Amino acid sequence: MNRESQLFQWAMVPAALLMAGLLAFSLARLRHDDPALAGLRPTPAPPPRHAAADQTRRHFGWPDEAVRQPMTQLANPFFTLAIQAAPPPPPPAPPPPPATRTVSVTYRGYFETSAGLRRAVVQVDDRQLLVARGEIVVASFAVAEIELRHLSLTNTAGASVRGEFSKPVPVEIPAQ
Length: 176
What we know:
Blueprint: H1 3-31, H2 35-38, H3 51-60, E1 100-112, E2 118-124, E3 127-132, E4 136-138, E5 141-146, E6 150-154, E7 160-164, E8 169-174
Antiparallel strand pairs: 1-2, 1-8, 2-3, 4-5, 5-6, 6-7
């Protein structure tokens, strides 16, 4: 090696020390508040708008402030209003209520008074009734006949139901 290249290596030592000193100085300044920056104040508020500008904004329906949203903060930078998804389908309409409902009528027996009047014990779903001939049991169904083993019911339309002792009979009535 020649003498010049050896001098060049030794000349780099002070340059490296100078750079390390500048780095240490700048790191030390980052840790502490700078008194030169303490006197700075926030930017002043913008001057008030002219009354004519406010009147023009109200007349044309313009917003007071325009909100600008940079494209980088959107979920998708390729956003467009030209292509939109179809609106969701309307919820299905509820089914119409049934026109009729079914009740269970069970003939539980009868008793006869001393005057010869028969009264039947009839169970409609979970309630028990004591009815005579011609009285209404459920909806428009009335008692037509009371016998030892059978009970006959008829309605105003002429439909009849015959129930046996202790056997439930489904009767279709108008829904209410």
